[in-house]
Task: inverse folding
């Protein structure tokens, strides 16, 4: 029952933020809800998972890891938002506060949804609730980004719905009792007709892939991430992209139990490698830091797809990486928001020498960049290491080598932007902005980074068991 | 499952071609409303009468036949131009593409393994044809409202496929899906108003600020 409470608390918070008239006090609701959510999530994760409401709701190990990541990321964003929104007093913050909380509620529901229709509904709600947030800056560029985000994501999510209908119809054709409950479908999988199951998988891969930002459905991503405030970018990259991944993992769990899995694995590895390649190419000449982070997100979503396609040991890496990638993206976007404020620009032409202008932000941005690209001691190093050992030990030599090469190109491309942004000399001809580093703008990303560092060196026993259990859920049910 | 349902589906296919070929946005919106009303009546034809079916019918008629067209017409009233600009491949190109995809949908649907009770029905080909027509409308139109109409055709095609499953899919999910659709169109309607204000036009081909620098 705890999970239902976790879903309703942010909704209640959303109602409060909508009703509070004072724009000054409204953001304070966010950290209160975030702390409560984080605390209760801890309890929910510690409990053994039990199905509720005829199996529609069940917080399994996979869902628990997603819940943990969402809750931690949201907490960091919530504390950051209090101070950030004070900087942006000229904007009405009702939309952003309410949208954030509705989104958190929908994300929480998604982690526990075992009915594919309900999961779809939750994911669609996250897309809708974020639309006004992408449009926070109220200018021509942000409306263009919002339109692309809304139209492309809506089409994608519609295709995912068609995939769900195909899956339900597959059960009808096979003469089984129609059901959309995950565990039932896993049992059905070997007897479902291949045509319908393959079509359902392809549609959901395209549909949820659009939400994740897999190439070639990624075109909305650099625009939306580039124009949204850093705070919103953190939720988009660490929250919404992971919701798409969760949708993909659920259909993967079903398809992997079917009789012939070759088609699914090939599709995933193909689209994953293509995404990493596209991201690497666009990372090389990227001068805008937020667009750079968007392509980095495309790259890592591609890594997830490849790892799911590899299967076996790589699944353990997927579970680690979903936490590592989500939290590192959080740090990068929150600090890039600070850089944008400090220089009134997010282009490396003008935003140079963050270490001199805003030392904490500069150091955090650099460390998070190193974490994101897989440097020890941070968590993504561990997960990417697992991906490579899995690829080579399971005989996917070409996939592994291509992955290594493309990741190297992406790393070098990002370095070309990150080095001047962090180490350069601040432009002298531009006026200084009124931005000053404050505790609440620096401490939340720092906390996330510390967590990433600790988890990279030492995974606590309960968390390790959870990760192993979750990876086990992604294996075929026999 | 009877011939009345098949006749209604032929009507749906004709509306697809009408929307692809029309120059005037308000006709496209009224046509999509008519398509929504036809879709609302379909469950009554294909299934024996049941309170569950009646609820779906009323809900779909209200949502697709009344609410969404009303929202779109409201957005159109605030826009300056009532006619769409020349589509990328012209109106005749649109219609030809619509006709070709309809034929392809029939050819492809004939190859799919269906449950015995669904053999020989128009539901699957009509659904695929409407989905593809929706894609053509989205890709080939330049005005934001017409792209939303294309998105609605896509959703309608998915709804037609859902008719095969009305018994299998719990009402709650269907109702939720429709509710989300309305919310989505509402958000899109709001965005269209903002696009109109920022660019003094709802021509999306003018939105070219965000792209990779060469």
Result:
């Amino acid at each position: 029952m705890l999970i239902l409470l976790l879903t309703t608390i942010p909704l209640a918070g959303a109602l409060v933020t909508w009703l509070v008239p004072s724009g000054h006090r409204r953001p304070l609701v966010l950290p209160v809800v975030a702390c409560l959510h984080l605390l209760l999530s801890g309890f929910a994760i510690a409990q053994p998972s039990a199905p509720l409401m005829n199996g529609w709701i069940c917080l399994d190990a996979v869902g628990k890891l997603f819940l943990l990541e969402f809750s931690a990321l949201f907490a960091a964003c919530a504390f950051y938002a209090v101070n950030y929104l004070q900087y942006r007093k000229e904007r009405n913050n009702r939309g952003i506060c309410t949208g954030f909380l509705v989104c958190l509620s929908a994300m929480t529901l998604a982690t526990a949804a075992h009915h594919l229709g309900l999961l779809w509904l939750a994911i669609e709600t996250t897309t809708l609730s974020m639309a006004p947030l992408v449009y926070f800056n109220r200018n021509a560029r942000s409306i263009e980004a919002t339109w692309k985000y809304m139209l492309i994501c809506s089409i994608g999510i519609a295709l995912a719905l068609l995939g769900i209908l195909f899956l339900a119809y597959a059960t009808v054709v096979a003469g089984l009792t129609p059901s959309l409950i995950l565990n039932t479908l896993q049992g059905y999988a070997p007897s479902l007709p291949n045509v319908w199951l393959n079509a359902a998988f392809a549609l959901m891969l395209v549909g949820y892939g659009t939400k994740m930002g897999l190439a070639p459905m990624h075109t909305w991503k650099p625009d939306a991430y580039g124009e949204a405030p850093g705070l919103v970018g953190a939720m988009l990259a660490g929250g919404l992209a992971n919701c798409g991944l969760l949708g993909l993992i659920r259909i993967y769990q079903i398809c992997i139990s079917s009789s012939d899995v070759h088609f699914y694995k090939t599709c995933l590895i193909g689209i994953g490698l293509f995404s990493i390649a596209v991201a690497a190419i666009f990372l090389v000449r990227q001068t805008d830091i937020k667009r750079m982070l968007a392509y980095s997100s495309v790259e890592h979503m591609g890594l997830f797809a490849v790892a799911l396609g590899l299967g076996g040991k790589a699944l353990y890496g997927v579970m680690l990486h979903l936490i590592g990638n989500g939290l590192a993206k959080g740090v990068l976007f929150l600090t890039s928001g600070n850089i944008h404020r400090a220089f009134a620009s997010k282009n490396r032409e003008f935003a140079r020498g963050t270490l001199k202008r805003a030392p904490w932000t500069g150091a955090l941005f650099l460390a998070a960049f190193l974490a994101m690209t897989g440097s020890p001691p941070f968590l993504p190093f561990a997960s990417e290491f697992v991906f490579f050992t899995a690829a080579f030990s399971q005989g996917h030599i070409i996939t592994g080598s291509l992955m290594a090469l493309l990741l190297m190109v992406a790393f070098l491309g990002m370095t070309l932007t990150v080095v001047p942004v962090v180490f350069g000399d601040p432009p002298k001809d531009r006026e200084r902005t009124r931005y000053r580093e404050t505790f609440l703008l620096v401490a939340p990303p720092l906390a996330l980074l510390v967590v990433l560092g600790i988890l990279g060196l030492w995974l606590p026993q309960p968390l390790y068991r959870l990760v192993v259990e979750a990876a086990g859920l992604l294996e075929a049910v026999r | 499952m009877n011939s009345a349902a098949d006749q209604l589906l032929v009507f749906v296919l004709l509306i697809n071609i009408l929307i692809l070929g029309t120059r005037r946005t308000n006709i496209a919106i009224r046509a999509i409303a008519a398509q929504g009303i036809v879709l609302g009546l379909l469950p009554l034809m294909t299934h024996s009468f049941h309170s569950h079916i009646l609820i779906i019918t009323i809900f779909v008629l209200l949502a697709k036949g009344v609410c969404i067209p009303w929202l779109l017409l409201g957005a159109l009233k605030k826009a300056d131009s009532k006619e769409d600009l020349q589509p990328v491949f012209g109106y005749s190109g649109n219609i030809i593409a619509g006709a070709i995809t309809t034929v392809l949908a029939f050819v492809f649907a004939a190859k799919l393994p269906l449950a015995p009770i669904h053999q020989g029905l128009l539901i699957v080909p009509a659904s695929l044809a409407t989905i593809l027509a929706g894609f053509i409308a989205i890709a080939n139109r330049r005005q934001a409202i017409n792209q939303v109409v294309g998105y609605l055709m896509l959703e309608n095609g998915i709804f037609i496929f859902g008719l095969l499953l009305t018994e299998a899919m719990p009402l709650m999910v269907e109702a939720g899906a429709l509710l989300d659709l309305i919310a989505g169109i509402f958000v899109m309607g709001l965005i269209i108003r903002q696009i109109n204000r920022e660019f003094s036009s709802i021509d999306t081909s003018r939105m070219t600020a965000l792209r990779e620098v060469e």
Residues 143-473 of chain A form one domain. The CA atoms of residues 375 and 381 of chain A lie 5 Å apart. Chain A has a mean pLDDT of 92.
